[in-house]
Amino acid sequence: MREESRRGRGQRGGELFSPERSERAQSGVLVHHPLEGEARRDLLMHAGGRDDTLPMEGNEAHGAVARLEEGAHAVDVGGESTRPGAAPVPPEEELRRVLPVVRSLAREGIVSVDTRRASVARAVLDAGAHTINDVSGGRDPEMLPLLAKARCDVILMHMRGVPATMQEHASYVDPVREVWEELGADVARAVDAGVDPSRITWDPGLGFAKLLEHNLAILRALPAYTAERSVLVGASRKRFIGALTGQERAEDRLEGSLAVALHAAACNAAWVRVHDVAATARAFAVWKEVRA
């Protein structure tokens, strides 16, 4: 899903937190959206790790279930690396990596699948996935009509270009405004295709076609973003956190990841995507008591 290092085998890792949420069932899908004035709740989504060459196996599914037990409310499964410079994988390989895991996890909790391909989205929705997380913002011409027909929850992310070349497009005059407007255009296309706007979560795409200063500008502007839309923040273990903390290894970026997760929660982000579920859940537990 993101500008992250390789984690595990065949699948990508991370979680999300949603501070203010209500829940309602529609067409068998659990819908999460922030409501003004309601009590804050920790809502974490765990995304499994993925690799460029190896398919996910049973131990990844078991590990994801363990993350649910640690406090994650959903699992985000991905079979294609989208870190900067990553090459695409064939859709058949992507499905080989994720489909068995989706089938296993669909019985355990909310399953989101990170894919840019409508063919993959169709298969995983049929297998029980609840949410499609599209880092391309719905560029596959068949994706948005499919999502509208499926009436599933949707996450659309801002990215310029494709993962292999996206950092070449990291040039902005006003990153806060430009990212919001460009992502808004993708959301408008989704709504025009028939996707229910209340099912759409906006992801500004930290680390995707963005430099350190762009990521920081977006994080500082989160209150303006979240005042208008359901927003996902995916900063966990990313390179800009390493740049700020001096940590080269992704697994050494926990403290910086927690700092951003707590900032996002304080800014009323709808979801925070993290890798370290247990640590994040504990941090949120203390944060909630301090704010009580």
Category from helices, strands and their pairing? alpha/beta
The arrangement of helices and strands along the chain is: EEEHEHEHEHEHEHHEHHEH
Radius of gyration: 17 Å
CATH fold title? TIM Barrel
Brief digest:
The chain contains 10 helices and 10 strands. It is of the alpha/beta class and 292 residues long. Strands 4-5-6-7-8 form a 5-stranded parallel β-sheet.
Task: Describe this protein's structure.
The protein has 292 residues and is of the alpha/beta class. It has a single domain (22-291), classed as TIM Barrel (Alpha-Beta Barrel). Helices cover 38% and strands 16% of the residues. The chain has 10 helices and 10 strands. The protein has helices at residues 58-70, 91-105, 118-126, 143-150, 175-192, 212-220, 222-226, 239-245, 254-266, 277-291, and strands spanning 22-26, 29-33, 44-47, 72-78, 110-114, 131-134, 153-157, 200-203, 232-234, 271-274. The strands form 3 sheets. It has a 5-stranded parallel beta sheet. α4 links the parallel β6 and β7. The radius of gyration is 17 Å and the shape is globular.
Keywords:
10 helices; alpha/beta; 10 strands; disordered N terminus; 5-stranded parallel sheet; 38% helix; 292 residues; globular
